[in-house]
Write the structure tokens for this entry.
Amino acid sequence: MTRSTHAEPETLLRLQDLTVTFGQPGTSQTAAVRGLHLSIAPGERVALVGESGSGKTATALAILGLIPEAQLAGQVCWCGEDLLQAEPSRLRGIRGAEIAMVFQEPMTALNPLLTVGQQVAEVLETHEGLTTEAAMARAGDLIERVGVDAAGHALGAYPHQLSGGQRQRVLIAMALACRPKLLIADEPTTALDVTLKQQVLDLLLELQQETGMAILMITHDLPMVRRFAQRVAVMQAGEIVETNTTAALFGQPQHAYTRQLLAAEPTRLVESARKGPIILEVRQFQALYPVSGGWFRTQYKSVVNGVSFVGTEGETLGIVGESGSGKTTLGLSLLRLSSAKSKGQIRLDGHDLLGLDSRSLRGLRKSFQVVFQDPYSALSPRRTVLQILEEGLRLHFPQLDAAGRRLRCERALEEVGLTGEALGRYPHAFSGGQRQRIAIARALIVEPKLVLLDEPTSALDLSIQKQILGLLVDLQRSRGLTYVLISHDLSVMRAMAHRVLVMRHGNIVEFGHTEHVLQSPRQPYTQSLLDAAFPTERLGQLVA
């Protein structure tokens, strides 16, 4: 382990030889965390980084005693008290009041059956003994303080009625309700677009300066770490392999694994756009959703406003924009997968998609496929990999017998870097990166001409992300595929897209070659996206 040489500050939390083991004694056991040492000083911002499965989240949950199925050893010293020896009642008193946690996915962290106000108020009633009326009043102040628009309305809203950014702010309000000394933030911005991510980081910095709390940030987002943390601990296979100040670690990483992580940030993988035959043509396309209805007429809201563009064979066309910009609706509409009412024209390989009936559309679907954002939910847990892959073959290649289908499935897996041994296994037996490879194989096995990539790497850590991006580019070159890439990650867009269109409020505000848009954006909105995605000191380097 590589340790820094600077003097260790006063300690708020100290993890001493912490070990987290899963499995019952006397049976096969797995150590998720082994002999971990980490300290956090009052008011300090520390980032814990590493790939998926490195033990980051297990470490955070162990601090608060939130993994009862695991065996814990070592010490978790909180203000001099070993929490591993504390009574359950003491731990309940600490959680939320002295140490609070913001989880990665707000839709699963928030109770769908309670209003936002009730959930924030519950923390205050539990830890500060406030009456329901007083707690709701404080909850309203907290929700307003964290910048939720129309806080009075949000107080009575349910989680599904708020946007992703608003839900994340509500989680922060809950965590800060009792002014804790330490906030543990577990991937708090992974699912947010670049501007919302920057807003959440700015909010955490502002609240930290106001309250003086310490923050332990758990993430695989290295650019975010660089702009947020004062000190970084790098975790690999359950152990911390390097700890140092942020500037020193990014400037002169000591451990080989740290250098590997830093080298995993996406770099440009494609050449400039080449002119080819037009395969996708969109003219004055508009997508509308019903918002209200009367006795005789339904009212509609336009979320895509008469956009026009073309995509050529063998290129990657990127679509970027904030949440609510209309990019996902546009992408899904290109494949007739959106429930929105559509107007205008979408032509794919000469076919008018909006004019096709359902039967004709079904026969054409093998020409365009999709790879979704989350490989964990995109694959049926009840089907083997063979059943998942051969589903499209049964529909679009009925002439193949069982042996022919299996042979194609084996070849599809080999093409994405897996072996035929995977065919008999279920999705839960694979890592996130392997599942995404299976999802890519499922899309390509029916030999499409166009593939929609909807945030294909946002759920993956950087090193796996780089592998998947490289795989997609190799497949595009070998097959002549056209990609439509939807992403809020401008690093991914820079790596893969030949051309990019920028959307805002349902309109295309900028469209051009990727390097031109990133180097010389014409619109202030595009510049704001770049400023949020890349720290100022690194922008020139990233777009060079």
